[in-house]
Design brief:
482 residues; alpha+beta; Glucose Permease (Domain IIA); 12 helices
Length: 482
């Protein structure tokens, strides 16, 4: 389980790095064209991608279809399907699981990071010298601003004795924490600016998003590119909140809001990680520049930003689709041999009338037939011991004949694999599955759904590698399938 999660994290780490680079380029190209909120929201493509448990296919995608769940080097054939040397079908052998020790090390480090952050957060919260603020004037101002921003949930005000910055905590019951110095040295307009900013965080659920961001930073601690992107997202979040406040202020009030930010320079930041605050001098300067150049986005700019974001989401969140050029009905098949391939006829024993193997998928396209062929890179002949059937991830896989499941687990290049033993020494093998729906020792019927198509193991795209063997010797499935 941990190995599968780690392999998924490694795969997403690569595609996530590409998304970070593309996002940074987009932000540079449209730095002054689109709103600060757009520059913040575009990072959600990265957040969503890093949390996706499975890949979603699309004919339009620039993302590579990466699977790192096994270590042997794979080779892509001319038909776009990866070929690897197939191990002998040993039904009782243990699967060769790659990255055995690395994924345990990764898991241990992640647990340590999360544990340390949680402990430090708890220590800080317990040491805070805060008390609930009970001041009618502030309660009234808070209620007015909540109504203005259409926030219905409960938000409370608290007071901190430390000379720090205003901040907001809590997902279910947000707390806005002000300092005594801010409260007693600020006029009503400055307090309004501060509360507007913190309430903007509450309205946009930034506290929850910040927690997710920190969790992802823990999972992908080994990738500096992803860490850079997630940290930049936090900075853009503050700019987006500044913009949300500015949109509600007059030009003169916008100047006052800028002066409020200046007063935060060199203020002490809370030592915990989950507080929504950003007070480094260079960050404040960046926010002041945004305030100085702020203007409401035009309708054309909004339309262009939506179109560009939609295209970016489509191309980055999805992976290339393996399309079926031919949709074959159940128990029927179609395939074409590449011009340079060499067909090898394998003697097949005559089966009893009661043993008839059916095609393992309902609709499919054979992209790599059984037999000897030329290696696409070395141009040497190698033997493909089964057939590759292209299909969309999640497509049902059926038992080709009645039998007993003798293996249902991970096996090196095959990825998630099922081996079914039939009578007369025959076995069928179903490889690269996304889900296994039966267990070792189960008895399955012909045409029973046993798994779903995937791209686990060594493969560049979703497909089913299907083999039939007699006494552990490979047999051409096309001479047997009915």
């Amino acid at each position: 389980m941990i190995g599968a999660v780690f392999s998924r994290v490694l795969s997403l780490s690569i595609t996530g790095s590409i998304i970070v680079v593309l996002t940074m380029l987009l932000k540079m190209l449209f730095k002054k064209k689109f709103s600060a909120r757009w520059h913040y929201l575009i990072w959600f493509v990265l957040i969503i991608k890093l949390m996706m448990p499975i890949d979603i296919e699309s004919p339009v995608s620039v993302m590579p279809n990466i699977d790192l769940e096994s270590t042997p080097l794979s080779v892509t054939t001319d038909e776009g399907v990866t070929e690897t040397p197939e191990p002998v079908m040993e039904t009782k052998a243990r699967p060769v699981k790659s990255l055995t020790y690395i994924h345990y090390i990764w898991f241990t480090i992640v647990v340590l990071i999360v544990t340390i952050k949680t402990i430090l957060e708890g220590i800080f919260l317990r040491k805070q010298k805060i008390r609930k603020l009970e001041l009618p004037m502030m309660d009234k101002l808070l209620s007015e601003l909540k109504e203005e921003l259409k926030i219905k949930g409960k938000v409370s005000l608290w007071l901190d004795k430390e000379d720090s910055v205003a901040r907001v905590y809590g997902v279910l019951r947000p707390r806005i924490i002000l300092t005594e110095k801010i409260l007693y040295s600020s006029d009503e307009s400055r307090l309004r600016y501060i509360l507007l900013h913190e309430l903007a965080h509450v309205k946009n659920h930034d506290i929850l998003i910040n927690m997710v961001r920190h969790l992802l930073m823990s999972l992908y601690f080994f990738n500096p590119i992803i860490l850079l992107g997630l940290k930049q997202m936090a900075k853009d979040c503050e700019l987006a909140c500044d913009e949300a406040v500015l949109s509600r202020l007059t030009p003169n009030e916008q100047i006052g809001y800028g002066h409020t930010l200046i007063s935060l320079i060199n203020k002490k930041r809370p030592p915990n990680s989950l507080a929504m605050s950003l007070v480094k001098k260079k960050d404040i300067v960046r926010r002041l520049k945004m305030i100085q150049s702020y203007k409401k986005a035009s309708k054309l700019s909004k339309v262009l930003s939506i179109v560009l974001a939609s295209g970016f989401i489509t191309t980055c969140l999805l992976v290339p689709q393996v399309s079926a050029e031919y949709q074959a009905p159940h128990k029927e098949f179609v395939f074409s041999l590449p011009e340079e391939s060499v067909t090898v006829e394998t003697p097949v024993e005559v089966l009893e009338e009661s043993l008839e193997f059916i095609f393992p998928t309902e609709t499919a396209r054979i992209t790599a037939p059984y037999g000897e062929r030329l290696h696409p890179i070395t141009k040497e002949k190698f033997f493909h011991k089964g057939i590759d059937i292209a299909a969309i991830t999640g497509t049902d896989i059926y038992a080709s004949e009645k039998g007993e499941v003798v293996y249902a687990d991970w096996m090196s290049e095959y990825g998630k694999i099922i081996i079914i033993e039939h009578k007369d020494g025959y076995k069928t093998l179903y490889a690269h599955c996304s889900k296994l729906l039966v267990y070792e020792g189960d008895t399955v019927d012909k045409n029973q759904v046993i798994a779903t198509v995937g791209n686990t193991g060594q493969t560049t795209g979703p497909h089913l590698h299907f083999e039939i063997r007699n006494d552990d010797e490979p047999v051409d499935p096309m001479t047997i399938l009915k």
